[in-house]
Amino acid sequence: MVEENISIRELAKQANVSPTVIQKLRSKDAEKVTLTTFTSVLRCLGYQIKLEKCPALQ
Fold first, then answer.
1. Residue 31 banded pLDDT, cuts 50, 70, 90
2. Rg over CA atoms, the chain
3. DSSP, residue by residue, 16-56
4. Are the C-beta atoms of 12 and 21 separated by less than 8 Å?
5. Hey, is 6 helix, strand or coil?
6. Contacts 24+ apart (CB under 8 A), 2-8
7. What angle in degrees, to the nearest 10, is found between the helix axes of 35-44 and 8-15?
8. Which of 20, 21, 43, 46 is most buried when burial is the number of CB atoms within 10 A of its CB?
């Protein structure tokens, strides 16, 4: 978040989550974070999730 120059409260507001959620994500203490929440936070930081099909296991 330092690189993105955004506060916890501002990120939470933009991602439409509570600051507690952001704090837990930062401290790696989040037990149950939905994909929607995680994606929203990442999007606000300028990231996206890409899915790629893995090569078939042989």
1. confident
2. 14
3. TS-HHHHHHHHTT--S---HHHHHHHHHHTT------PPPP
4. yes
5. coil
6. 4/45, 4/46, 6/44, 6/45
7. 120
8. 21
Tell me the mean pLDDT in the region 36-54: 92
pLDDT in tens, 6-29: 899 999 999 999 999 999 888 887
Q: Which two tokens stand for residue 44?
A: 């606000």
Residue with tokens 């989550």: 17
Q: 33 and 23 in contact (C-beta within 8 Å)?
A: no
Residue 47 and residue 45: Cα distance in Å, rounded? 6
Phi, psi of 2 (to 5 degrees): -65, -45
